[in-house]
Write a structure and sequence with these properties.
about 425 residues; 17 strands; globular
Length: about 425
């Protein structure tokens, strides 16, 4: 069903909170949003989807994750990033198969849909398997093959880049346009300067963006400065990375000069507060980035370092973390945080013309949230934004619509055999890490 009329909802639009609203969807596109009393007669005959007692809002956009890492959830807890990666994660990932990634991603899609995420940016391996899962689940995603290549691996790096470009050419625009692609050099500490330059050159020639990790920890910054005489941000700028649209994950240990460089080049930042806190990586200066006009979205990172993909929880963490780290209770108010989790994420993925807000002409990627529960009361229209950021829970999401298709109907997944996916993911995780 890609034609429907969602009626009697409280709609959170870019302009205002609209109680007793209706949303008309035709061919997966929002055709009308506004007071139900003003609904044009042309939409009155659409199939009705009842929204009474629900908030209708844009679907959440997870701006940075590694979806298939759901199979490693709880496997490597309570470690610093370097030890977590080198001693636990990299060895486990070396045993992954494409079918592991498919089922891990399907598990991630089920979790994300249940918690109100409609679109995500993913960087990982066996991305054909990830793309297949995205297509089947009905989700929207920006997909990137994660690549690393050291100075002594020139031929291997070229082969990886060629494979990533092939993936992009085959999958960009697939699944009815729900899949887009980027190139993903993993990080400045896992990629040689030659390889990074090659990726930047290929991105420019192919019209692709870049998705990468930048300045995740103080240790990373120290190592890159020691080796190259530049911060990771300065290093990437010098190598031409920022000459194309760049999605930079984390950006925790950045200086004022780094922020100015990112702002000048239009670098987009995926802020991952939960993962950064768990790994004790630090607090990204998001308030300073936003003040410089940088587009910032929210991400969960992978389930091995978070350990969930809950963007509603991530919103609450993001705003509270900025308040306590700056000592300013007015920092990142609820409305700004909600925008960061929706339109901010859409901007990070270059999809702001398609999704991120409830507007006529945009794709119908939206969620319905039950506001009739005790922890959401007393509920007044004026408190809807506050309640979504400070009071709501992922279990409040009752229905999810992506591209006009209902992928969760009153908490029942319609595109994923949840029982089968959970059983297979459990079986594969046991083999992978034991």
């Amino acid at each position: 069903m890609r034609d429907l009329l969602i009626r009697d909802v409280l709609a959170l639009t870019q302009a205002a909170v609209c109680p007793q609203a209706a949303i008309a969807v035709r061919d997966g596109e929002i055709a009308y949003i506004g007071p139900e009393a003003d609904l044009p007669p042309a939409y009155a005959g659409l199939p009705v989807y009842e929204g009474r007692g629900r908030i209708a809002m844009p679907g959440l956009v997870n701006a940075h994750t590694h979806a298939a890492m759901t199979l490693l959830r709880g496997y490597a807890d309570d470690l610093a990033l370097h030890e977590w990666l080198t001693q636990m994660i990299f060895p486990a990932e070396a045993r992954l198969t494409d079918e592991d990634v498919y089922f891990g991603t399907m598990l991630a899609c089920a979790e994300m849909i249940r918690s109100g995420t409609t679109c995500f940016a993913d960087m990982y391996f066996f991305m054909d398997a990830t793309a297949r899962a995205v297509a089947e689940s009905g989700m929207r995603a920006s997909l990137s093959v994660g690549m690393g290549s050291g100075a002594g691996d020139v031929d291997g790096g070229r082969a990886k880049l060629a494979g990533a470009l092939d993936f992009c050419s085959r999958w960009n625009g697939q699944a009815g346009g729900r899949i887009t692609t980027m190139l993903a050099p993993h990080a400045p500490y896992t990629c040689s300067t030659t390889f990074i330059e090659d990726v930047a050159r290929a991105a420019r020639a192919s019209g692709l963006g870049i998705h990468t990790h930048v300045s995740e920890t103080a240790r990373e910054v120290t190592e890159i400065v020691t080796e190259y005489g530049k911060s990771p941000v300065e290093h990437f700028e010098a190598l031409g990375v920022f000459d194309v649209p760049t999605l930079a994950a984390h950006c925790v240990a950045v200086s004022e000069r780094d922020i100015d460089i990112m702002a000048a080049h239009g670098v987009r930042v995926a802020h991952n507060p939960g993962s950064n806190m768990k790994l004790a990586s630090g607090v990204a200066p998001v308030v300073d980035m936003l003040a410089k006009g940088i587009a910032v979205g929210l991400g969960t990172d992978g389930a091995a370092s978070n350990n969930n993909l809950d963007m509603i929880e991530e919103m609450r963490l993001a705003t509270l973390l900025q308040k306590v780290s700056t000592g300013d209770p007015t920092a990142m108010p609820a409305a700004e945080c909600l925008t960061m989790a929706t339109m901010g994420g859409a901007r990070c993925l270059g999809l702001e013309q398609l999704i991120g807000s409830l507007e006529v002409g945009k794709r119908a990627d939206l969620i319905l949230v039950d506001h009739s529960l005790p922890h959401m009361e007393p509920f007044l229209a004026s408190r809807a934004t506050s309640h979504m950021v400070y009071a709501s829970s992922s279990s409040d999401v009752s229905s999810v619509i992506i591209d006009g298709s209902v992928v969760m109907d009153e908490r029942r997944l319609t595109t994923i055999d949840e029982t089968a996916i959970l059983a297979e993911a459990r079986r594969r995780a046991a083999v992978l890490v034991e």
